[in-house]
Amino acid sequence: MAFQMTCYTAATAQVSYSGDAIAGQAPVNKVGALLLTEGLAVMTATTIEIQGKGPNGPKQSQLQGKIFKTTQTGNTVKGNVYFDGGPGLSALDSTSCDEYVKMTDGTKVSGAISEVTASAITCARRSIPMNEVADVHSARVFKFTSSLGDKPHLTFEPTCIKVAATTKVKQTSSSDFPFGKVLLVSAVVAVVTCAIVLPITLTNSGRSHHNHKKNDRQINQFVYGKKQSSSSQSSQYSSCGP
User: Closest by alpha carbon to 86, among 62, 117, 67, 111?
Assistant: First the structure.
C-alpha cells in the first residue's frame, strides 16, 4: 500500500503557475519543525494543504494555509504561505516568535497576525493592503520556492529565524597602548606622589627643627643653671674663709 501511495504521488506531482495563481502537487518532507512522512503539498490558486502520513498509517491533512505575494522567475515560483489550520500548527507555534509586518516604506507594524488574504494582511487588528507589505515575520509564515512542471521540487524557509548572539573580546597588545598615554599616566602618578609626600616631609622637618630648638634651650638652661650654682658655692666658701 505504501509503495502504491509513493508511486501515485510521484506520478501526479506537477505544479503550474498562471497569473497570480499556483496549482498542483509537490512532495515535501519538512515545514519548519514539522517533519512529514510521505508529505505532499496540494496547492489550489491561493490555498495550500500539507498532507502527511499519520500515526495510524493513512495520509491526513497536517496544515492548511493561504498563499500570498507570489512571483515567477523562469521555471521557478516563489511566494509566502500563512498556515492557520491543522494539527501540525502546534509544531510551528513551538518556535516562539515576535510577529510583525515590515512595510514598503520602511516602517514596521508589530502585533499578532490574525488573517491573510490575497489582497490584505491583518496585523495588530490593522488591515494592511498587500501591495504595501514588504516582509512578514511570524512562526506561521514561511517563504516557499517551487519549480514548475513535472517532478517539482518544493522547499519552505521560515521567516522566524533567531541568530545566537556572539560577543567578541578584543585582546589589547602592548603595541595597541599608546606610548603617550604611558607618559601621561606616569606624570600624573608623580604629581600625586609629590602632593602627598611633600607636606609630610615639610611637617616632619618643621617638627624636627622645633625639637632642636627646644633641646638647645634645655641644654642652655641646664648649663646656665649649673654655672649659677657653682658661682653661688664659690662665693659662700670665700665669705667663710680666714
Answer: 62
d(CA 37, CA 91): 15
Q: What is the mean pLDDT of residues 184-203?
A: 46
81: region left, alpha or beta (phi > 0 left; psi from -120 to 50 alpha): beta
Pairing of strands 141-147, 154-158: antiparallel
Instruction: Kindly state the cell numbers that stand for 127.
Output: 488591515
Section 203-216 average pLDDT: 51
Q: Please identify which residue in the block is written with the cell numbers 512571483.
A: 71
CA angle 66, 10, 14 (to 5 degrees): 45
Q: Has residue 157 got a pLDDT over 70?
A: yes
* Residue carrying the nine cell digits 589589547: 172
DSSP secondary structure string, 11-80?
HH-EEEEETTEEEEEEE--EETTEE-SS-EEEEEETEEEEEEE-TTSSEEEEEEEEEEEEEEETTEEEEE
Cell matching residue 188: 600624573
Strand order across the beta sheet in which 120-123 lies: 113-116, 120-123, 126-129
Distance CA 95, CA 146 (A): 24
Are 136 and 80 in contact by the 8 Å Cβ rule? The answer is yes
Per-residue pLDDT tens over the stretch 179-192: 454 444 454 445 44
Q: 197 to each of 69, 76, 193, 205, how far by Cα in Å?
A: 79, 83, 6, 12
Higher pLDDT, 91 or 231: 91
